[in-house]
Write a sequence for this structure.
């Protein structure tokens, strides 16, 4: 039954995303640069070689001036390094910072429109595993310079910030950004590492069926660094657990993702489920008021705002330690919620990450 439900959920996600469709690119000579792709400025003065997260060696000549981002986390890193003005294309899911939403769209996370990428005339593309291997290969065959980012830990995120900085000529900005993020992380972990007792914490992605974050996820790492113990650390990555299993586990704290299922009135389906489902009322977290809403974007994306999630989680678990002295989080605009397409995109990212790993 569990495998059937998982397969059904995954299939539904894939079908919805495929409805958006993708377009194939105009054929060109394999291995030859596409005629519409310009050369980066300063090609004679600068040439760097980087190794992306899939082990591919990529040579970048000049300082890229036209950048396409094929993942929300990539977009957030680019903007954190003051590269927003150079971004000429993003996916439908790229919504932070808010100005990123105004950039030309090149398709969905898993449904990249290659013709639109070509039309953007990028001299550098930042991709992700969920774009599919075929898409990345196709872009490279068309002469595109593609760097794939695939952070799996918080430290990987910081390394990717440095990688993006090196690839774009923003090394100094990247160094400053990473130093600030490390200081903020240290400000939390120095207070939580030595705690004698650490409460059990569950992070719930969705409720029908109940999806939780297990080991090997950003959420698992955030919970541990914030001073908690993942109540479902025994399950692999993102998994479905039964209602009975969740009730039996009885986590002391529950983090539920915001955005997913929210309407313009601020209604949150996951939070509402725990607060109103009669069978959930026996949980310690419900009875003690220890259910906390956390922005799905900051705790799920491999970008700089993962540190915001850490600070927020630590503050929820230990208000006495972080209520007034918590490090200042990156200013974030809380979106009123996801519509059908972004929700599908978010769940598909979870599914694709699980398949790739």
């Amino acid at each position: 039954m569990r495998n059937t439900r998982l397969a059904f959920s995954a299939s539904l996600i894939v079908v919805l995303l495929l409805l958006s469709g993708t377009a194939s690119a105009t054929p060109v000579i394999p291995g030859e640069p596409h005629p519409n792709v310009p050369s980066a400025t300063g090609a004679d003065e600068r040439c760097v070689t980087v190794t992306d997260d899939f082990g591919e060696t990529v040579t970048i000549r000049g300082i890229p001036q036209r950048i396409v981002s094929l993942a929300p986390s990539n977009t957030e890193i680019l903007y954190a390094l003051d590269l927003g003005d150079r971004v000429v294309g993003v996916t439908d899911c790229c919504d932070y910072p808010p100005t990123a939403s105004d950039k030309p769209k090149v398709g969905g996370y898993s449904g990249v429109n290659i013709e639109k990428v070509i039309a953007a005339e990028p001299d550098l593309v930042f991709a992700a595993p969920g774009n599919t291997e075929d898409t990345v290969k196709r872009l490279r065959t068309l002469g595109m310079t593609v760097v794939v980012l695939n952070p799996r830990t918080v430290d990987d995120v910081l390394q990717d910030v440095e990688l993006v900085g090196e690839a774009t000529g923003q090394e100094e900005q990247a160094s400053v950004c990473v130093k600030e993020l490390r200081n903020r992380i240290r400000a939390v972990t120095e207070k939580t590492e030595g705690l004698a007792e650490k409460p059990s914490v569950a992070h719930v992605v969705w409720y029908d069926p109940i999806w939780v974050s297990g080991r090997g996820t950003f959420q698992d790492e955030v919970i541990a660094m914030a001073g908690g113990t993942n109540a479902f650390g025994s399950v692999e990555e993102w998994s479905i657990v039964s209602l009975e299993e969740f009730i039996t586990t009885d986590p002391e704290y529950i983090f539920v993702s915001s955005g997913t299922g929210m309407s313009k009135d601020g209604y949150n389906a996951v939070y509402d489920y725990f607060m109103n489902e009669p069978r959930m009322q026996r949980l310690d977290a419900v009875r003690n008021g220890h259910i906390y809403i956390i922005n799905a974007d900051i705790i799920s994306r491999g970008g700089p705002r993962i540190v915001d999630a850490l600070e927020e989680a630590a503050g929820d678990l230990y208000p006495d330690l972080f209520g007034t002295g918590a490090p200042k989080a990156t200013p974030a605009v809380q979106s009123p919620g996801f519509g059908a397409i972004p929700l599908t995109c978010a769940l598909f990212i979870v599914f694709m990450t699980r398949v790739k790993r």
Remarks:
- The two ends are 23 Å apart (CA to CA).
- Residues 171-192 form the longest helix (22 residues).
- The chain has 14 helices and twelve strands.
- Residues 199 and 228 are 5 Å apart (CA to CA).
